[in-house]
Write a structure and sequence with these properties.
It is built from 17 helices and 10 strands. By secondary structure, it is α/β, with parallel strands linked by helices. It has one domain: Alpha/Beta hydrolase fold, catalytic domain (Rossmann fold), CATH 3.40.50. It has a 10-stranded mixed beta sheet, with helices on both faces. Strand 3 and strand 4 form a beta hairpin. Helix 7 crosses helix 8 and helix 12 packs across helix 13. The longest helix is centred in the last third of the chain and has 21 residues.
Length: 415
C-alpha cells in the first residue's frame, strides 16, 4: 500500500490537519498483481465459444488479452507513480472518512480554486493530464494570471479515500468536500466540476452552498428539477418541448438497455460482485475495460480508441494498489441513497456551465432542460471527447472549464 510521507513546505493550515501522502507501492503488491495476471488461463482470456464478434457480448476477449500482454511486457507503473507524485497529495480525517486529495497551487497573483470530482470506473488520476493546463496555463502558451488552484480528491471508498463508516449519499459526500475546502483548506470561494458520479456531488455542493460555491461545471446532468429523476423518462413539467420529451425517452431507453445492466447490478448487489472483481485483476479489468471502450468517443478518431492502454491500466492500478475495488462498489451503491432531484420549486442558483461532450454513455440534454434546474450561463458542445474527456481530450476539457471560470470571475468583478 502507498504510505504517508513527511510534510514539506506547505502552508501552515495544511500541515495542522493533514498528512502529506506519496504513492509508494510495495514491490510485493506489484508482484502479486503480475503473478495473478500471468496465472489467468487462455480459456479465460479467449473463451472456447467459436467465432463471436468482439464487444457484442461484453468485453472482447482479444482486447482483454492484448491489454494484459501490454501490461505484462510494456507498462511501467513506477513511471506513472512518479508522475502522480509530482503533485502534492494529502490525507485528512473528516467525519470518519480519511479523504485523499491532490492540490496544485495555480500560477498568477490571485488564482481561483476549482475542485475536480471523478466518477466510476475512473479515479483522481483521471485528471492528471489537465491539472497543469489549469494551474499553469503559461506552460501551454497561456497567461499565468489565468492559473487556477486545482484540488482533486478520491471519492470516499475509491482509491486512497476510505469508505465512510455509514452509508453516504451523494449529497452527504458533497458536504464532506465542502468541509475539506472551507474548514481544512480555508477556501472562502470555490468552483466545482463533476462528471459521472462526481456530477451530482458537485451539483449538491452548488445547491447547498451558494455563498461559497462560485460556479458549477458538469458533463452530466445528475440532480434535476423536481419530478424528473435521471433515467426515469419523466420531464417533470406539464408543457415539455418535443426536444425535451425526446431526450428523456432516449435517456430511459439507453439506461434500460444493455448499457445499463452493470448499473443495476452494482446498485443492488455490490457484495455479490465485489469478491470476484477484488480477487482477480483480470476479472476487474474485463469488467471496466468494457466501460472504457464503449463510453469513450471513437467517432472523431476513425474508430481508434481515444484512451491509450497506459491510460486504462493506470486507472485500474489505482483501484488495485489501494485495495479499493470492493469498497468502491459498496460506495457506488450507497451514493444513490437520499434525494436525486431538487426540492419542488428550487433550482441551483450559482452560475452553471454544461459541456455536452459526444458521450456514448450519456444522452446530451437540450439547453432548455438543463436550464430548468439551474442558473445556466454557458452550454457548449465540444467536437470530441466522450465520458472521460479529461483523459480523452485534455486540451478541450481544460479550455472549456477554464473559460467558464474566468468568464464567471470577470462577470462578478464587473457587477
Amino acid at each position: 500500500m502507498p504510505t504517508p510521507a513527511p510534510a514539506g513546505q506547505e502552508p501552515d493550515r495544511l500541515t495542522r490537519q493533514l498528512t502529506r501522502f506519496r504513492l509508494e507501492t510495495p514491490d510485493s503488491a506489484l508482484e502479486q498483481i503480475r503473478r495473478r495476471l500471468t496465472e489467468v488461463g487462455p480459456a479465460a482470456l479467449s473463451p472456447r465459444a467459436g467465432q463471436r464478434p468482439g464487444w457484442l457480448l461484453g468485453t472482447d476477449p482479444a482486447a482483454l488479452e492484448a491489454l494484459t500482454q501490454h501490461w505484462l511486457t510494456t507498462y511501467d507503473w513506477r513511471q506513472h507513480e512518479r508522475d502522480l507524485n509530482a503533485f502534492a497529495q494529502y490525507t485528512g480525517l473528516i467525519d470518519g472518512v480519511e479523504l485523499h486529495f491532490l492540490r496544485e497551487p495555480g500560477s498568477g497573483s490571485a488564482p481561483a480554486t476549482v475542485l475536480l470530482l471523478h466518477g466510476w470506473p475512473s479515479s483522481f488520476a483521471t485528471f492528471r493530464a489537465v491539472i497543469r493546463r489549469l494551474a499553469h496555463p503559461e506552460l501551454f502558451g497561456g497567461d499565468p494570471e489565468d492559473g487556477l488552484t486545482v484540488i482533486v480528491p478520491s471519492l470516499p471508498g475509491y482509491g486512497f479515500s476510505t469508505l465512510a463508516p455509514a452509508p453516504l449519499g451523494l449529497r452527504a459526500a458533497g458536504q464532506l468536500f465542502h468541509r475539506l475546502l472551507t474548514e481544512v483548506l480555508g477556501e472562502k470561494r470555490y468552483y466545482v466540476h463533476g462528471g459521472d458520479q462526481g456530477a451530482p456531488i458537485a451539483e449538491w455542493m452548488a445547491f447547498d452552498h451558494p455563498d461559497h460555491c462560485a460556479g458549477l461545471h458538469t458533463t452530466l446532468l445528475g440532480v434535476r428539477h423536481d419530478g424528473a429523476p435521471l433515467g426515469s423518462g419523466l420531464t417533470g413539467i406539464e408543457d415539455p418541448s418535443a426536444e425535451e420529451a425526446a431526450f428523456v425517452q432516449r435517456e430511459r431507453d439507453l439506461n434500460s438497455g444493455p448499457l445499463g445492466a452493470y448499473f443495476l447490478l452494482q446498485l443492488t448487489a455490490p457484495f455479490t460482485l465485489a469478491p470476484a472483481l477484488a480477487d482477480s485483476p483480470a476479472g476487474f479489468t474485463a469488467w471496466v475495460l468494457e466501460k472504457f471502450h464503449l463510453w469513450s468517443d471513437r467517432g472523431a478518431t476513425g474508430g481508434v480508441p481515444a484512451l491509450s492502454p497506459d491510460d486504462i491500466i493506470t486507472e485500474i492500478m489505482i483501484y488495485l494498489v489501494s485495495d479499493s475495488v470492493a469498497s468502491s462498489l459498496v460506495a457506488y451503491a450507497e451514493f444513490f441513497t437520499g434525494p436525486i432531484t431538487l426540492p419542488p420549486g428550487r433550482v441551483i442558483e450559482v452560475p452553471c456551465a454544461f459541456a455536452a461532450f459526444p458521450d456514448p454513455r450519456v444522452v446530451s440534454p437540450p439547453t432548455s432542460f438543463v436550464a430548468r434546474s439551474r442558473h445556466l450561463v454557458r452550454y457548449t458542445e465540444p467536437p470530441r471527447g466522450g465520458h472521460f474527456p479529461a483523459l480523452e481530450v485534455p486540451d478541450i476539457f481544460a479550455t472549456d472549464l477554464a473559460e467558464f471560470v474566468w468568464q464567471t470571475e470577470r462577470a462578478g468583478r464587473s457587477a
